[in-house]
Amino acid sequence: MQAFCYPGTVIARHLPDHTGSESLLNVIAQTLEISADDFASGTGWDIKPEGACKGEVCVPLPDGYSAAYAADRLGMAVVTDDASGLSAFGPESLNGRALVTAEAPEFVLPDLDGNDFRLSSLRGKKVVVVAWAPY
């Protein structure tokens, strides 16, 4: 894995894809106010008059460019950590099959004493959900 830093603005992490060439994993920014050039360098989506474009695919940006708006139009999850002031842009999801928020849906499971435990009781905290099945 390689990390590329754009001075004071963006860190983009790339991983090799199944073909062996590098594919973008995500972008971490110190501000949501990143330039179109930094957005393109980090995500691979060039900002043009016709919208955000990658190869032959262009997604219109009728309200103009901002990184947050472009990410929303491209289906990229954007998560901000208030303590550090960093924001992470996930990969695009033009087909709608990826998470577009980092907020987990509500679910209730019994704890070891048989009492209902609600995931929402941890809202606002960082949580790792580990699932296991015996089959």
Keywords:
mainly beta; three-stranded antiparallel β-sheet; 135 residues
Could you give a short account of the major beta sheet? 5 strands, antiparallel
Lateral arrangement of strands in the main beta sheet:
1-2-3-8-7
Strand content: 25-35%
Terminal CA distance: 33 Å
Rounded mean pLDDT is 77
The rough form would be described as elongated
Class based on secondary structure composition and strand pairing: mainly beta
Helix and strand sequence: EEEHEEEHEEEE
Rounded to an integer, what's the Rg over CA atoms?
18 Å
| Helix count, DSSP H or I runs of 4 or more residues | 2
Strands, count = 10
Helix share of residues?
A: 10-25%
Indicate the low-confidence ranges by residue numbers: 1-10, 12-25
Describe the structure.
There is one protein chain. The chain is mainly β and 135 residues long. It has a domain at 2-89. The chain has helices at 36-43, 67-73; strands spanning 2-6, 10-16, 22-29, 46-48, 51-54, 57-59, 78-81, 86-89, 108-110, 116-118. The strands form three sheets. A five-stranded antiparallel β-sheet has the order 1-2-3-8-7. It is elongated and about 60 Å long.
